[in-house]
Amino acid sequence: MVLVFAHLVTAKFKVMPVFGAYDYLQITLKGYNDHRIKWMMFLSCSWVFNINDPIWPQGVDLLKDTSKSIKLYKDTKEVIVAQDTSQLTIYHAQYLKCCNNAHGNDEVLVTFDRTDKEIRYRLYYWKDNYKKVTVTLTRKDGIQLQFECNLHADMNGYISNDTERSSVDKQLIEPDVIYSEICSWATPFVLGDSRISNDAFNSVFYLKVSADYRTVYTEKDVTLKNSSHL
To answer: Which terminus of the chain is more exposed, N or C, with fewer CB under 10 A?
Structure first.
């Protein structure tokens, strides 16, 4: 996202995602001299930071909040270049929609990223009153994967069929609940054991996301990969 002020200043906002961490934000400001001057000169400054850094905007949740405007200043002059922070690509993780198969709505967002060795999952939730969000993936034969994100605690994983259910907690890779609003985890392609197993590499699922046992999103024919791995 690039914002321009009087053709003399540009502000570029870019999100830098890191798996297992809160997204980083990069802001680049470029100031130019007056176009009527013969020689073009500019000054460029760039900052990269996330919520753990002291320069992160205080009192605003950039993933969820739309109550703040964005302004550029030049000496004593100011201009509102965005009425609210929903115009930033970090808001509701909009940047993910450019190059991923993002699944969700105005309450949740789920992405799957297949690497050479594992499947990476990211779950974002936009409401503040949830205690647990559950991602359920069901194959046509009834085998089901379920990942429970306890927003103020930890994560749990299960595999089940029509007759039994077992934990796959030990197969979860780097499970993490980040600032009670993002869940991040990875799994090998094959989950389960000799009794129940699921090879997610080529499986097609029915996706259901529940918040405190209330269904908030569903989608048919979901594969666990992003668009760059089609």
So the answer is: C
